[in-house]
Every structure is written in C-alpha cells, then in structure tokens.
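Hi C.,

You asked whether I'd gotten around to modeling the 95-residue construct. I have! Everything is below, sequence then structure, no commentary in between.
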Amino acid sequence: MMKRDNKKSKKGTRRIEAWIYTVITPLIEALKIEKSFLKDKNWTWRYYTKNLEFILPLEGYVDSASIPNFEDFFNTNPKIERKKIVKLHLNILQS
C-alpha cells in the first residue's frame, strides 16, 4: 500500500479551501441576494457609473484580493466553463 504525501495533499486542500471561502461561497451568497432583487424588480441604478447598484458581473462579487483565486478556480476546473457561466448570468440579467 502506498503512503500519501501529506505535503502534497495539504497544499491541494488549502487551495480548495481558498476556492470555497473566497470564490464559491461569496458567489452563492451574492447570487441569492441578486435573485431577490431581480424577483422584486428592485433595480437600483447608479447615475454616475450608469450601472445597476446591486447586480454585478460575477467577478464583482468576489473581493479584489481574491480575483487570483477566482481565475485559478476556473482555470483548474475546465469542466466549469467560465465563459458559458458568465454568458448565462448576463442573459438572465438582460431578460
């Protein structure tokens, strides 16, 4: 029976934890809030930026310090197609 390399598994574990805490969880929470705004047709507009206040592109829901984790998550998981998800999100916002 082969021994597991604990250093290797810990490094992967930390990476996954980073994805969960800095990418996945913030996206889930933000999309829940976004859904309630969309459901209630509560579209607060920012006059100066000409953007919606509480409805953002997906990257906007991730802390700027966590953007590398966001990029890493999608680059490491090619089955999760970032372009497809972003396009779906934009289509939902436009409908």
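If it helps when you're writing up: The chain has one domain: 9-94.

Thanks,
B.
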